[in-house]
Amino acid sequence: MVLLLNLVLVAGLVAVGLTAHSLAVLAEGGDCLLDAAGVIVALLAIRVPARFPRRPDGHPAATGIAALVNGGWLLLLELIVAGAAVSRLVSGTPGVEGLPMLVASGIAALVMTAGALVLHGDASDESEGRDLSVAAVLLDTAADAAAAAGTAAAGGVILATGGWNWLDPAVALAIAVVVASQALVLIRKVAGRLRAT
């Protein structure tokens, strides 16, 4: 279900990001594309046959590797977004259309929140050994919902002021820093668990 939500959002966000000249909305679309790939990797890892190595908690070792791949992809994307945002802040931000940002990102925030709720319901409590690949996708989906809400808010401000275009790359940069720090935490956690097996 989350895979389908991500695929539907990719086309809409990229189209709106291009027409509205919004780096933040384009970053959301790129993130949703990587999320779709991450969900596929997580699903494949969960479906690994029993003959493959398992961790002491009973989960296949492949789920930890899938979580590591997802965290790495997310970190790489956020570094790219941060670089583009800094470039726009330094060289000047082109005109950004606030209404498409507000509408598209508002819808994306609602869809990603629904996806996070679905994933949260599928994940058991960490004390019971939550599957790392599902935890990685859940973290990314929740981060996407927050990023989309922040982008929608920036779109609303740009629309209301008619010219605070610098908010677009500023929000993109803030989101990139927060999500990249969470990705680093996840990568360290997963690497620690993989070394322990």
Order of helices and strands: HHHHHH
Task: Provide the β-strand percentage band.
Answer: under 5%
Shape: globular
Rg result: 18 Å
Instruction: Classify the secondary structure makeup into a structural class.
Output: mainly alpha
Poorly predicted parts: 125-129
Give me the number of helical elements: 6
Mean pLDDT: 79
CATH topology assignment: Alpha-lytic protease prodomain-like
Cα distance spanning the termini: 31 Å
| Count of individual domains | 1
Taking the sheet with the most strands, its summary is: none
Helix percent band? over 70%
CATH architecture assignment name: Up-down Bundle
**What is the CATH C-level name?**
Mainly Alpha
List keywords for this structure.
Alpha-lytic protease prodomain-like; 197 residues; 6 helices; single chain; 0% strand; mainly alpha
Structure report:
The protein contains six helices and no strands. The protein has a single domain (2-196), classed as Alpha-lytic protease prodomain-like (Up-down Bundle). Residues 125-129 have low confidence and may be disordered. It has helices spanning 2-20, 23-46, 61-91, 98-122, 132-161, 167-196. Helices cover 81% and strands 0% of the residues. Helix 2 (23-46) runs antiparallel to helix 3 (61-91). It has 197 residues and is an all-alpha fold. The protein is globular.
